[in-house]
Specification:
Blueprint: H1 8-32, H2 40-65, H3 72-101, H4 105-119, H5 124-137, H6 140-166
Length: about 180
């Protein structure tokens, strides 16, 4: 019996790209509608898409590449890897948007942050201090790094949970019926 070579990296890249493209479409809709602070339901939808992408990719990997069986650790690792690739693609998109396509996009983000800080009850001097700090760290390149790190961390947390339900151990002994 010949063992089929499993290509975890290729599968994670494929499903990570699919997840990133769906997230980019969601963000493009927000961008085209000039929404800088999406409503709560859009955030929930985004999280659901991320969880759904991890679940879908892991199930496809388990069933197509691993013959229907996957351990908890392998499911977790695959979900993290999928999230990493999705975050890299999404981070690249974010960089292109903020540095090349529409550098003025960040001004809208800054206005939204100022409004949020003022609504929280901060006085104008505190808001100015906060905005100076935010602008130092919100360069397009820093946004890519924070996006990749944050998205991968979130994907890890989601994968820790989803892997519990997606694992399917191969039986130790085959039974003949």
């Amino acid at each position: 019996m010949e063992e089929k070579k499993v290509n975890t990296l290729r599968s994670a890249m494929t499903y990570g790209l699919m997840l990133a493209l769906v997230l980019i479409v969601i963000h493009l809709v927000q961008y085209l509608m000039d929404v800088y602070k999406p409503p709560m339901w859009v955030n929930i939808l985004t999280y659901a898409v991320i969880v759904g992408g991890i679940v879908y990719g892991t199930i496809r990997f388990r069933d197509d590449e691993l013959g229907g069986y996957i351990s908890y650790g392998k499911a977790l690792g695959f979900g993290v890897l999928l999230s990493l690739f999705a975050s890299i693609v999404y981070g690249f998109y974010n960089y292109l948007l903020t540095a090349v396509i529409d550098p003025s996009y960040m001004e809208g983000v800054y206005r939204m942050l100022e409004e949020t800080y003022l609504e929280m009850g901060m006085d104008y001097d505190q808001v100015e201090t906060m905005m100076e700090t935010v602008k130092k760290f919100q360069t397009p390149l820093m946004m890519v790094f924070s996006s990749v790190f944050g998205f991968t961390f979130m994907g890890t947390v989601f994968s820790l949970i989803t892997s519990i339900f997606l694992k399917k151990e191969e039986p130790l002994f085959e039974t003949e019926e």
